[in-house]
């Protein structure tokens, strides 16, 4: 825990939220609406973390989803923060604004961040902290203002920070302790205060406060303090105090009125402190009863005297003496430090240590001599039988002997990294039966010489990376039965043998990155002994297969426990294949990476041996196409990386059935359109990366654009940076700037209208056909007749006849014997009769048409024969119309035109009512209107002929108009024409 806190302080950033805060955030999430979408212009979302780091942003993005709990805006170009910049983030707990250009923060700018706990404003340009700058941050517990150049602090700047526990305002330009008073008066719960690197010249307790503070940690280092006075017990809980400045030239005055004022201090750092020895002694005496850890790095005073004074404190157990230029450590230098259990002597240029320099440190458990100039393991360390941790890294040690560690039987950690050791010996670690961690990386080791064949039974972690090993001989690790993690990356290993890893039955992680292992090395079966291995890294080697044919012996056939396999390459450029059964035996494999191995083909059965695979990376391979069959066995796949694979389409995902896929990276490929079917086939997709593809800015991508903006589940990373490649008019323009309004169609509404219209049309057509089919047929042909009649009128010459006679051939005697003599002989009318006036050889329909349009009137002689003719039946009538009439020859409309009084009806005989029942309109007319009836004129025939004469003369007769209306409305009126056609 202590190391984690130290790391957090030194590197900046916010620590993990407390359990109560997590609970509060979870409660608030329950009442939040879902995020409006995960398309962010300049950020990406990782679970509830919004990451906008290093995107050259000048303002805070406004599209951060309200469900975000962490927002990282570090390393951007933001200059000021306004009240409208950080709204609608009700559960945000951490805001990182590290390394921007922020020079101004408006009052109440953070007022909406009611759940914020950590605010990082390190490395900005805040010179003045104005009134209400942190208003609303009532739950803030951690505030970082490191390296801003702050000079002035408003009295109300910190008034809302009543729950603040950690404040770092170091490396600014605060000059007086009074400026701290303005802050502390509003922070009753402040636990840790860091003000190092300011311009404080004095520290007087009465200027800071007149009450007790809850501070546990106070860092005043790197301030030019020349006067330090405490007159009251204002630090009753202080446990960690850091004070001192390596750049200070004037000595500091120390005046603590009562030694009990610092009675709780257990960790004291006076590195670089310039103070008189007497004052230093007084300082150490003030913490005499509680001190456990003392750091005296980069000291200017007599270090030997300080060590003697400090080591006389009975409670002290840890001593740091770094960067003090101790080239030589004598036998009496640490003779009083009998209670020390942890000693740090790093960065002292030590090149010689006397044999008994550590003789008095019999309780020593941790000794660090790293970053010095030792050429061999010092004799002074050989007899520290209580030592559990020895750090000799970053020295100049060339050889190690069998006696160097022989007495260190309690050693648990040994660090020899970054030396010049060229070879090991089989007796080197003979007695290190408790050793658990061994660091030998970055030496010049070429041979192991059996150093690990029979010893180190409890070793769990060993780093041999960065050496010059060329081969792993059989049984080299036979004595490492407890080893869990072995790092061999960065060597020159080319040869593996069948028993290279025998003995490592409990090994969980093996790193062979950046070696020279070839296919032949895999074919040896060297990995068969690693039955419990979980992670194997073979990245950047020389593994190459000429074809995809199945192997006789698979390299990982016995690794059924393996969960992660990596074989990526960075510099191998020759085309290769992956054998179809390369992964055979890896039944529990969860993660597989074959990035940049230049494979050009993957057989559809490649992954049938890995049914549990969750993460697959085959990026940077010239595959060209991918098939659905290749991925069909991977029903548990959650992450897929297929960038730089030259694929032209993502359609293979439609049938791949990757229903659990959550992450898809498919950058730098050659597809231009992403269809709805592709995205709908991935129901649990949360994050996609399609950057740097050749997008087409047309309606083919309209759905994808709309989905990118409105998706509530899937985040499209860097969508705002997608560029168009087609058509040329949109080349290099942003895809999201393409207007899709012209492409949008309400297909649902169109389908509804079309379907409804079709149903209504079918229903109307069905009813019409069933009940009115004959009327419709006739109406159609009457309309054509009207068109034809209109044309005829334009071409009509003066009428040649006064009347055209229409009759049934059975009534011809009456027409010849009675009608013709009376109308032509006595009255002088010129009549048209078919047997006399029709032109021989001319089609009868043309003769009829010409006769009607050449006559002023048409006289229909109606009898039973006329009505009962088969032509009057609807079926025959319609059929006759269809077969006999053509659009160019229709002529009947003129007979039914209400605007022309052309039709004269003459009933040749009385017709009973029952015979007229089919003709209801005729019956209705006969009841209301008079008509010409030959039988009724038997007693007065002259009256009949006179009325007929008048009918031939008149232009408007109500009776005739009504009759004509009836004929035009009723389909049976065609009988008039059809009866004519009988002739």
Notes on the structure:
The structure is a single chain. The chain is an alpha/beta fold and 983 residues long. Among the domains are: 1-29 and 38-200, Ribonuclease Inhibitor (Leucine-rich repeat, LRR (right-handed beta-alpha superhelix), Alpha-Beta Horseshoe), CATH 3.80.10.10; 768-981, Toll/interleukin-1 receptor homology (TIR) domain (Rossmann fold, 3-Layer(aba) Sandwich), CATH 3.40.50.10140. 22% of the residues lie in helices and 14% in strands. The chain is built from 22 helices and 47 strands. The protein has a 29-stranded mixed beta sheet, with no helix packed on it. A 5-stranded parallel beta sheet has the order 44-43-45-46-47. Helix 13 links the parallel strand 43 (801-806) and strand 44. It starts with a helix and ends with a helix. Residues 1-11, 16-37, 870-900 and 956-983 have low confidence and may be disordered.
């Amino acid at each position: 825990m202590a190391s984690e806190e130290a790391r957090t302080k030194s590197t900046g950033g916010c620590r993990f939220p407390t359990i109560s805060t997590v609970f509060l955030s979870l409660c608030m999430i329950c009442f939040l609406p879902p995020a409006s979408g995960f398309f962010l212009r300049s950020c990406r979302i990782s679970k509830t973390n919004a990451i906008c780091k290093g995107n050259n942003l000048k303002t805070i993005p406004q599209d951060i989803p309200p469900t975000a709990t962490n927002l990282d805006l570090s390393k951007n170009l933001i200059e000021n923060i306004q009240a409208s910049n950080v709204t609608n983030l009700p559960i945000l707990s951490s805001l990182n604004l590290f390394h921007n250009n922020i020079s101004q923060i408006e009052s109440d700018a953070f007022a909406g961040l009611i759940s914020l706990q950590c605010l990082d404003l390190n490395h900005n340009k805040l010179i003045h902290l104005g009134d209400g700058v942190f208003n609303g941050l009532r739950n803030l517990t951690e505030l970082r203002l490191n390296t801003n150049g702050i000079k002035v602090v408003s009295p109300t700047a910190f008034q809302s920070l009543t729950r603040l526990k950690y404040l770092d305002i170091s490396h600014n330009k605060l000059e007086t302790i009074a400026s701290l008073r303005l802050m502390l008066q509003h922070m009753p719960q402040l636990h840790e205060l860091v003000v190092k690197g300011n311009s404080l010249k004095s520290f007087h307790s009465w200027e800071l406060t007149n009450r007790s503070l809850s501070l546990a940690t106070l860092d005043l280092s790197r301030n030019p303090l020349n006067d330090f006075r405490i007159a009251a017990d204002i630090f009753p809980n202080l446990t960690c105090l850091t004070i001192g400045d390596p750049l200070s030239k004037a000595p500091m005055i120390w005046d603590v009125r009562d030694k009990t004022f610092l009675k709780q201090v257990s960790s004291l750092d006076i590195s670089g402190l310039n103070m008189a020895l007497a004052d230093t002694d007084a300082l150490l005496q003030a913490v005499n009863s509680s001190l456990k850890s003392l750091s005296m790095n980069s000291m200017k005073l007599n270090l030997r005297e300080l060590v003697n004074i400090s080591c006389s404190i009975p409670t002290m157990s840890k001593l740091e003496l770094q960067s003090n230029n101790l080239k030589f450590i004598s036998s009496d230098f640490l003779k009083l430090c009998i209670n020390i259990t942890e000693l740090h002597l790093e960065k002292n240029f030590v090149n010689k240590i006397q044999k008994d320099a550590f003789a008095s440190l019999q309780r020593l458990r941790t000794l660090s001599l790293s970053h010095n100039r030792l050429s061999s393991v010092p004799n002074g360390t050989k007899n520290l039988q209580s030592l559990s941790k020895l750090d000799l890294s970053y020295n100049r040690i060339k050889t190690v002997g069998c006696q160097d560690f022989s007495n260190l039987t309690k050693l648990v950690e040994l660090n020899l990294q970054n030396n010049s050791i060229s070879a090991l010996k089989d007796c080197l670690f003979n007695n290190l039966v408790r050793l658990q961690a061994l660091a030998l990386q970055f030496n010049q080791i070429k041979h192991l010489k059996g150093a690990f064949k029979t010893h180190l039974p409890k070793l769990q972690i060993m780093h041999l990376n960065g050496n010059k090993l060329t081969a792993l001989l059989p049984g080299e690790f036979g004595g490492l039965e407890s080893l869990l993690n072995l790092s061999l990356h960065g060597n020159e290993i080319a040869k593996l043998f069948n028993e290279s890893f025998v003995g490592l039955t409990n090994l969980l992680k093996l790193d062979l990155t950046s070696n020279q292992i070839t296919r032949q090395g895999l074919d040896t079966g060297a990995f068969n002994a690693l039955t419990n291995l979980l992670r194997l890294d073979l990245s950047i080697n020389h593994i190459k297969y000429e074809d995809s044919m199945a192997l006789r012996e698979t390299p990982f056939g016995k690794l059924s426990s393996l969960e992660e396999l990596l074989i990526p390459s960075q510099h191998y450029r020759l085309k290769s294949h992956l054998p179809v059964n390369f992964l055979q035996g890896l039944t529990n494999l969860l993660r597989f990476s074959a990035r940049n191995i230049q494979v050009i083909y993957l057989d559809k059965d490649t992954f049938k041996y890995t049914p549990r695979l969750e993460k697959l990376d085959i990026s940077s391979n010239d595959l060209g196409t991918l098939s659905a069959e290749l991925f069909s066995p991977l029903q548990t796949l959650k992450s897929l990386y297929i960038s730089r694979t030259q694929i032209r389409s993502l359609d293979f995902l439609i049938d791949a059935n990757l229903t659990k896929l959550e992450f898809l990276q498919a950058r730098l490929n050659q597809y231009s359109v992403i269809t709805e079917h592709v995205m709908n086939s991935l129901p649990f997709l949360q994050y996609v990366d399609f950057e740097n593809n050749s997008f087409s800015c047309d309606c083919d991508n309209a759905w994808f654009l709309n989905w990118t903006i409105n998706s509530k589940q899937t985040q499209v990373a860097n969508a705002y940076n997608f560029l168009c490649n087609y058509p040329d008019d949109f080349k290099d323009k942003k895809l999201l700037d393409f207007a899709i309004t012209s492409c949008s169609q309400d297909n649902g509404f169109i389908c509804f209208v079309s379907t409804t219209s079709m149903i209504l049309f079918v229903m109307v057509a069905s009813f019409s056909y069933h009940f009115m089919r004959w009327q419709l047929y006739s109406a159609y042909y009457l309309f054509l007749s009207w068109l034809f009649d209109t044309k005829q009128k334009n071409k009509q010459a003066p009428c040649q006849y006064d009347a055209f006679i229409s009759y049934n051939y059975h009534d011809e005697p009456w027409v010849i014997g009675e009608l013709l003599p009376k109308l032509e002989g006595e009255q002088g009318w010129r009549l048209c009769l078919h047997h006399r006036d029709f032109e021989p050889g001319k089609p009868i329909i043309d003769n009829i048409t010409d006769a009607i349009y050449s006559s002023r009137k048409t006289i229909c002689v109606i009898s039973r024969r006329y009505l009962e003719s088969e032509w009057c039946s609807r079926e025959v009538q319609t059929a006759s119309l269809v077969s006999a009439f053509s659009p160019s020859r229709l002529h009947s409309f003129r007979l039914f035109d209400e605007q022309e009084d052309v039709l004269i009806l003459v009933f040749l005989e009385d017709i009973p009512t029952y015979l007229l029942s089919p003709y209801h309109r005729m019956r209705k007319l006969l009841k209301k209107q008079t008509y010409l009836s030959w039988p009724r004129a038997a007693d007065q025939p002259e009256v009949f002929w006179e009325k007929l004469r008048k009918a031939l003369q008149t232009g408007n007769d109500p009776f005739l108009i009504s009759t004509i209306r009836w004929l035009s409305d009723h389909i049976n009126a065609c009988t008039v024409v059809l009866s004519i056609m009988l002739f």
